[in-house]
Hints:
heterodimer; A: about 350 residues
Amino acid sequence: MFSRHISDRLAAYIEEARDANLIEQHLAECERCRAEYVQVRTGIDALQHLPLAVAPASIWNSIESALVGSPKRPVFSPWKLGLATIAALIIVGGAYWIITRSNARWEVDGLAGSPVVGTQHISRAGRVGAGEWVETDARSSARIRIGDIGSVVLSPNTRARVLATRPQEHRIALAHGEIQAKISAPPRLFFVDTASGTAVDLGCEYSLYTEENGSGLMRVTRGWVSFQRNGRESLVPAGASCRTRPHAGAGTPYFDDASESLRRAVDDFDEKPGADALTEILAGARVRDTLTLWHLLPRVAAADRGRVYDRIAALTPVPAGISKEKVLNLDSETLTHWKDELAWTW
Amino acid sequence: MLRFAVATSVFAAVAMADGFTFTIGSPVAAQEAQFKTAAFAFRTEHCAEPAKSQITATAEGIVHGARRSVALKVAALQRPGVYAVFQTWGDGGQWVVVLKGECENETAGAIVPIGPKGFIRESSKFFPRPAKGPEVDASLKSLVEGESK
């Protein structure tokens, strides 16, 4: 992990995900760099939203003339300098307008006790903006209204930071504690960052508990949630949960009504993948537990993948068009198709 | 005679296996966020032109001892042949959702009991024709007896 501040690395991380692992570990622990991350990200996003202005054809004639002309001619004539200044002011003004319009402040309701918003204790209501913290103690709780798409309730002993309040990105970071999110919006508008990964709303209601180190539990009550980290994803539907682990991201999801032995075996497998835990999972799986089995396909050793495939096939017919060979080779299109079909049994 | 009966049963099972029918699933199977609060999703099977199928749904229930029936709106999803129904029959009482479908010259029916935690997959019944009144009553009776235990 980077021990020093990473200001000069943030742009490359945002645009190219360079050193993503190390950057994310540092951001999880460095408040100053997290604040800078918000600013840099806001600036990059604002530039991307600026309208593209097409230069008039005549401008090229004047540029060519300037290049071909006498060396004694001034590079910038006064009127061109004036035009450039006006254009720069328009761009800066537009960026400022986009930034201020995009970073709305969300309402915070005090549900119990006296939660802290920013540096202020609130009794009933307050507002929180990007970069600010909301914190509850053992006797307080709060509800953050996430724009007009839903709300997040902070249980006692919870600390969360608002990272983005833009129409296309509503994002908070959960440092520790528990939240219950209720979102009514198209998918992928609401995100919760934790030390072990990001919960991406796909249209859902869920609770998410995390400790400072990222270990925790996500439980979905409606819709779906995707929990992602470094390309590893767990899709968790209503009625299911998945554990999160420090630096390992999302665990293998399982239905809450799965047998205790299966749930225990899943936890054992996620801690230390092994044949014994896998055998226990396969033996205890019902039709509905194909949710767990499907997620295991890319997580088990290649030599064990056939066992997982065979168990799913024994529980529910393999749809036409699903090739065993492609499944064993983790063909993404095949796996997605199979997941879409299996979802009818979840 | 016995051979004829066996052959007929096998034929009927095969015909039903390949005939127009429904598959039900939780709202997540619909994969469209706006349907996450639906009571359940369902799709037609073995229908050559699912977009042209005619589907209706009613909620049949017993509330405070009185029989109730509520017509439901069937929401069509983007994928042809996939639908969702929402709980618009109110709280209280015991309810089943009765599906009826027509695809070309075939019909199908289903009775989907609704429990405290949502639709009850294991108790759902499927038919190669519309469900009959006594079948609906039987499902409701099972629900009432199940909840009174």
